[in-house]
Amino acid sequence: MGDRTFPGLLVPFAFQTATLSNSTAVAVNSTIRGGKASVLILSVETNNVRYRDDGTAPALTTGVLLTVGNSPYKFDGYNRTSQLKFQRQTGSAKVSIAAYRYRGDPTS
């Protein structure tokens, strides 16, 4: 995320903590999807995780790697579907997800 700033045009509205402890990928929850999120801020809390947003679940060794030491990550342009899924890389992992809309975006 580079400069670690949060634009003032974002309106916060939802939060999710995803605990990843087995081989089942976890999707973004319905509160975030239904709230019309445009931007997600992701914080990898414990162990590295992987994600995919193309409709295929990530696995322990496939998907885009997000590392603990580089959090937070900004996911701009979220498509508001359950296709965005997370999977642990090793051990148990936790991802915190803060959801935002741009001011003026429709809420329904």
Describe the fold and architecture.
- The chain has 108 residues and is mostly beta strands.
- 5% of the residues lie in helices and 41% in strands.
- The protein is built from one helix and eight strands; from the N terminus they run ββαββββββ.
- It has one helix spanning 30-34, and strands at residues 10-20, 26-27, 39-44, 49-52, 64-66, 73-76, 85-88, 93-102.
- The protein has a four-stranded antiparallel β-sheet, with no helix packed on it.
- The longest helix is centred in the N-terminal third of the chain and has 5 residues, at 30-34.
- The protein starts with 9 loop residues before the first strand and ends in a 6-residue tail after the last strand.
- The model has no long low-confidence stretch (mean pLDDT 88).
Task: Kindly list the characteristics that best describe this protein.
mainly beta; 4-stranded antiparallel beta sheet; globular
Structure summarized in a few sentences:
The chain has one helix spanning 30-34; strands spanning 10-20, 26-27, 39-44, 49-52, 64-66, 73-76, 85-88, 93-102. By secondary structure, the protein is mostly beta strands. The longest helix is centred in the first third of the chain and has 5 residues, at 30-34.
